[in-house]
Amino acid sequence: MMTASIHGRLTTVKPLKTKTGKSMTVGQMVVNLPVAQTEETEGQWFNVLAFGDAAEELARVAPKTNVSLMGRVQFSRYEKDGEERTVLQIIADSVLTVRSARPKGRSKRTQEGNRTSASPGWKPTGDFQDPDDPFNDELPF
Fold it and tell me: pTM score, two decimals?
């Protein structure tokens, strides 16, 4: 089994139900991948399939939205116009968007100006380091 974490633009999304009534969402996304030994990128298309909670989260994502998915990779084969085609498919276990990372557009700062966590009531303690500071590299060596 191969798993992958991909980030790209969701192009289509269609919520469905399985025969047993379980949530299922299908869609497509494109991921820009670098072309070897060049500065160019090329779009790689993936079919996306999700079930349960991941399907419900994916169904809330609007087309043309950037999304990160993590899940199993498999090939899907079908025939079109007498030609057999193979596509990459991601069976998503988790879906992450900007909105799901910060639900309902909540601000990163409280009224006092302190950073907050996703957990209500969280407060920094001790020598709190700003996790968003990419240059915070005070290492002891």
Answer: 0.65
